[in-house]
Write a structure and sequence with these properties.
The complex is a heterodimer of chains A (117) and B (110).
Chain A: E1 5-7, E2 10-13, E3 19-24, E4 31-37, E5 44-50, E6 53-56, E7 65-68, E8 75-79, E9 88-95, E10 97-98, E11 101-102, E12 107-108, E13 112-116
Parallel strand pairs in A: 2-13
Antiparallel strand pairs in A: 1-3, 3-8, 4-5, 4-9, 5-6, 7-8, 9-12, 9-13, 10-11
Chain B: E1 4-6, E2 11-14, E3 19-25, E4 32-38, E5 45-51, E6 54-58, E7 61-66, E8 71-76, E9 85-92, E10 99-100, E11 104-109
Parallel strand pairs in B: 2-11
Antiparallel strand pairs in B: 1-3, 3-8, 4-5, 4-9, 6-7, 7-8, 9-10, 9-11
The chains are: A mainly beta (117), B mainly beta (110).
Chain lengths: 117, 110
Amino acid sequence: EAGVAQSPRYKIIEKRQSVAFWCNPISGHATLYWYQQILGQGPKLLIQFQNNGVVDDSQLPKDRFSAERLKGVDSTLKIQPAKLEDSAVYLCASSDIQGFVSTDTQYFGPGTRLTVL
Amino acid sequence: QKEVEQDPGPLSVPEGAIVSLNCTYSNSAFQYFMWYRQYSRKGPELLMYTYSSGNKEDGRFTAQVDKSSKYISLFIRDSQPSDSATYLCAMRTSYDKVIFGPGTSLSVIP
């Protein structure tokens, strides 16, 4: 079974530039998550999709971050404009559903390491 | 006070030692408790999953939850160099998102 794919793996940009990350979840997984992991911290949920609907985006800085999951499969996360404090690893994860609830087994991709200069 | 706290380490032990990793939390509504392992430059992977209080064992790993003390632990027996990683505790209520701890860095020295 193929895992969660993310690209690019690394990105360096200057502040005020824009950047986009791509994620392809495990085939058949209805739930997709984007996390931000700052060095020395645990992952923090930015947005959760179930199919192509948003379940939770309460911690997404909506003035600069946006995400979409068209057709309920792959997803993109965009930052525009980037700030220095956005330097982090952006992790995508996916999980299956039992009934109406996502299971707790989240499968993570390798992440995209973003450096904002 | 942060919702989930973990000693960041680094923790360094000799091969074969028993390792104890711990987390404390403040939200008494947490019911589902997880431990994830994260190797350098990789995404986290689920190791153990426990519902409510009690113990769960899987091979060399044992997870313990003490809800009365708001304290969870992960024990690793006969630790191996391949166990060297960051260990993240995670937890959630029955209706909300997963909250991760900051992680403990573990090195097992051959």
